[in-house]
Amino acid sequence: MDILTIGIAGGTGSGKTTITKKIISEFGSDVSVIHHDSYYKAHNELSYEERCRLNYDHPDSFDTPLLLKHLRALKSGRAIEAPVYDYTVHNRSKETELIKPARVLIVEGILIYAEPELCRELDIKLFVDTDADVRILRRIVRDVKKRGRTLDSVIEQYLTTVKPMHEEFVEPSKRRADIIIPEGGRNTVALEMVLERIRGYLGRR
After folding, report:
1. Domain 4-202 in CATH: superfamily?
2. What is the DSSP secondary structure assignment for residue 82, as one 8-state letter?
């Protein structure tokens, strides 16, 4: 199977998921998605309190070798059982998610361009560039409403790890991007250019 691989990176709350959803809504079953967040390392050896103190915004917090293995399997036409991460307990769950190969494969995550080997597997690399104030507000809403976090814990995590790691790893990694999209899914011009590129690849023009 001939597969087009697209990376979608950007800081927390930048709009990566919005763009991913718009691509899926346009092309449906022709698209499969791998989320980098699913590949956080398991820490069964640590207590919940110890897991809460880990830095989840450093490249070393991810099981990137497993992600690469799964990405290459999908590119060769084989389905995978991707891990599922449980944010409420800061650990990988016992469940897995079946992901089947498709003609368009999206790899989405904050730190995917911090890994040169992963970059080499991607045909198109998009970086969603959104103002920091907008991103932190979106993160607060998401983590408090959907992940059961307290406001204080979200702010503390942002100041101690998210912001410093963004400045050290995420922001510099956008130099590896092919296209930088300001304002994420609200940038309809850039989004339409991406969709048109995929239409051309799929022969849907």
Report:
1. P-loop containing nucleotide triphosphate hydrolases (3.40.50.300)
2. E
